[in-house]
């Protein structure tokens, strides 16, 4: 699949990915589940690099769901370790390439040392490669969904809206879709245009429930550790050929 098939004007601005199949990949290779996650980090590096190269502006990766907390302690700790390693190892590279890191989800639950590396990378990449904050300098915003759940996002938004109503900062009649969205973790981010899910699962799995309303969905049987540049480009090209109507009639 050649890069030349990418039409910049038709690219999705925001791509969201449910990275699935690390466990199945590990099993197929007679390895432990943690080795599967480790192999998955390589695909993360590839999608970030490719998204930046082709000109995708926002990339959201479902790295740790609220449900993932229920996995065996050893696996959860390994995911923390991989995340921490990723943040430390990739920080310089992200800054150099003007990639801004953002996090959605409740990271208070994560170990202090992981939270520290997250905040450090978020702050450092916000300033960009020039070391100073200049609005609009970032080529790509990488959003990691960490301890994220779509329902939990909507619930925390409702809690904060209720508080603001009590404090008389907003009235119920002022809450329209735009106002509601500004209370979600994704405030200031455009809704995803394309949702990719690997390993042949046909579910949203409590990902960006509100934000995915009109996203185009692309599913592949490829397991996340095998997700290659050519498969990613195939998804982008498939998106370019979709007709998005947002519930309306064409040429109305
Ligand atoms: C699903 O595979 C994937 C995850 C639980 C999260 C993805 C995490 C990584 C790629 C590694 C760490 C993240 C970062 C940001 C460095 P699965 O275990 O559900 O696969 P299965 O359905 O085949 O068991």
| Element pattern in H and E | EHHEHEHEHHEEH
For the record, the CATH architecture stands as 3-Layer(aba) Sandwich
Low-confidence stretches: none
Number of strands: 6
Helix-strand category:
alpha/beta
Ligand identities: farnesyl diphosphate
Characterization of the model:
The protein is an alpha/beta fold. It has a single domain (7-148, 191-240), classed as Undecaprenyl pyrophosphate synthetase (3-Layer(aba) Sandwich), CATH 3.40.1180.10. It is 41% helix and 14% strand. The protein has a six-stranded parallel beta sheet, with helices on both faces. Helix 4 links the parallel strand 3 (99-104) and strand 4 (140-148). The longest helix has 24 residues, at 73-96. The chain is globular. The two termini are 35 Å apart. It binds farnesyl diphosphate (FPP). Residues 19-24, 37, 40-41, 44, 63, 68, 79, 82-83, 86, 144 line the site of farnesyl diphosphate.
Q: What is the topology?
A:
Blueprint: E1 14-18, H1 22-28, H2 33-54, E2 58-65, H3 73-96, E3 99-104, H4 112-127, E4 140-148, H5 150-166, H6 177-181, E5 194-197, E6 216-219, H7 229-240
Parallel strand pairs: 1-2, 1-5, 2-4, 3-4, 5-6
Farnesyl diphosphate (FPP) is lined by residues 19-24, 37, 40-41, 44, 63, 68, 79, 82-83, 86, 144.
